[in-house]
Task: structure prediction
Amino acid sequence: MADDEESKRHAWDVYVKGGPPGVGYDPIHYWRGGPEDPEYAVIRIVPWRIQLVRGSDLHSTIWQPDTPSAPTT
Result:
């Protein structure tokens, strides 16, 4: 869980700014108190492996950091 205000504000801003049309949403509809709302929480995910599979040929690319870290729970 990311309880610090900077992480909560960053996640909030990502959703407010959205992406391409139709992506993202304004979280104020769910947490009326904004990023300070006690019901608003952010989960920090630290990837230890990312696998990209192309549907057209099923070849995959796997990314792992140079110094692997143990997954957190």
The chain has a mean pLDDT of 84. The beta strands are 50-53, 60-63. The radius of gyration is 17 Å.
